[in-house]
Design goal:
This protein is mainly β and 373 residues long. It has helices spanning 5-15, 115-119, 168-178, 221-227, 274-278, and strands at 41-44, 52-53, 68-71, 85-88, 91-94, 100-111, 123-126, 131-137, 147-150, 161-162, 166-167, 181-189, 244-250, 253-256, 264-267, 271-273, 282-287, 294-301, 304-313, 320-324, 334-342, 348-356. Strands 1, 4, 5, 7, 13 and 14 form a six-stranded mixed beta sheet that branches. Strands 2-3-6-12-8-9 form a six-stranded mixed beta sheet. The longest helix has 11 residues, at 5-15. It is elongated, with a radius of gyration of 27 Å. The termini are far apart.
Length: 373
């Protein structure tokens, strides 16, 4: 879903009697593995309802939101994203009936000086028939004229190459020279543009970004769609996910277009003694988190809850495991919930834990003894 999973985490934790106290203050207990660290926020956009339509009425006549949107040529007849493709285990796959774009605006423009940092951790898992790009605009204008520039083969951090072989460093310099900024990003899927009346364009178009230099090759969104027309027949033999996308990471956000997993937590034992809880502890095994994210732990009972010092790093499959030893403050018999929360995804998993009194002490059993010697 496209809303922040942190909001869901707050609701779920509150239902367990654990509120904002789950935000950890302790250091990471386990070393970071080779799995790249997760972005600050991770979401799943795995259904057509997670996208808002942009009515496409002209090259500069649409609004970018800090959320996932979709758009198609004005001549296309589809009224929902579901008419242009499907969501499944491999992410979103276009059906090729018409070009369609998945679009995401930014909360603040990214200047040329900020571009390298913005792209530093960017990456895409996208099929060879789909392509990615960014929106460019002069945000000093009252009504900015928006154009697009596409990548050669997806986002690859600061090494991303742009159309025409432009490097990120060159693009950043040209943005600075033109006084322009990146205001969003998009994924475009090819198809045949239906025949129809031309898109109305009564207003004069500013010559922004077309004066000189590398940005001469930028395209308006309708030009970008038109460039994809007529190629569907060549893609008839493509594998199902050739015109699809599974995930996209850029800036502080990672979006998975695959089905959102259900977070789960299993404990090595659901009943332990006070002594065990505060000495050897118990093992936790969690799943359904975002790869590379920090997963914090908490404990609660009734209306009370607290964070625990034990944190974990999810592996490439979103799994975590480790040992939790409870602090003395929670060394009391009772019924508790152990909770794991993904700091980037907001994924929440919980499991009940019963803590009983002190461990039993061995008592000698009376009996007869035989001595020799």
């Amino acid at each position: 879903m496209t809303r922040s999973r942190l909001a869901v985490a707050s609701l779920s934790a509150a239902a367990l009697g654990i509120a904002a106290v789950l935000v950890p203050t302790a250091s990471i207990a386990e070393p970071i593995t080779e799995t790249p660290a997760a972005s600050a926020q991770v979401i799943w956009a795995d259904a057509a309802d997670d996208f808002t339509e942009i009515p496409f009425t002209g090259p500069a006549e649409f609004t970018l939101l800090d959320a996932w949107q979709w758009t198609a040529p004005a001549e296309s007849s589809g009224s929902t994203l579901a008419e242009y493709g499907t969501f499944g285990e491999k992410g979103f796959t276009s059906n090729g009936t018409s070009p369609v774009a998945l679009v995401h605006g930014l909360p603040a423009p990214i200047s040329g000086a900020e571009l390298s940092g913005f792209l530093a951790d960017s990456a895409t898992s996208v099929g060879p028939e789909a392509f990615t790009g960014v929106f460019i605009a002069d945000t000093s204008e009252e009504v900015p004229f928006v154009t697009t520039i596409t990548t050669v083969d997806g986002f690859h951090g600061e090494d991303t190459l742009w159309q025409g072989g432009t490097t990120t460093e060159e693009l950043a310099a040209e943005l600075t020279a033109e006084g322009a900024s990146v205001v969003g990003y998009l994924v475009v899927f090819p198809g045949v543009v239906p025949t129809g009346s031309p898109i109305p364009d009564d207003e004069p178009q500013p010559e922004l970004l077309r004066s000189s230099g590398l940005i001469d090759d930028t395209q308006t969104l309708d030009e970008l769609f038109a460039a994809q027309s007529g190629g569907a027949a060549l893609r008839a033999a493509a594998v199902p996910d050739a015109a699809g996308i599974a995930s996209l990471r850029i800036g502080d956000l990672t979006t998975y277009f695959t089905p959102q997993p259900t977070a789960a937590l299993a404990l090595s034992s659901t009943s332990i003694t006070v002594s065990q809880a505060t000495t050897t502890g118990f093992t936790v095994s969690g799943s359904g988190f975002a790869p590379g994210e920090i997963v914090s732990s908490g404990i609660g009972t009734g209306a009370m809850g607290d964070s625990l010092p034990d944190t974990f790093i999810a592996d490439a499959d979103g799994n975590v495991s480790g040992t939790i030893v409870l602090p003395a403050a929670w060394a009391a018999a009772g019924d508790y919930f152990i909770v794991l929360v993904g700091e980037s995804s907001g994924q929440v998993a919980s499991s009940a834990l019963a803590i009983t009194g002190a461990a039993p002490v061995a008592v000698p059993v009376p009996g007869e003894a035989t001595y020799t010697g």
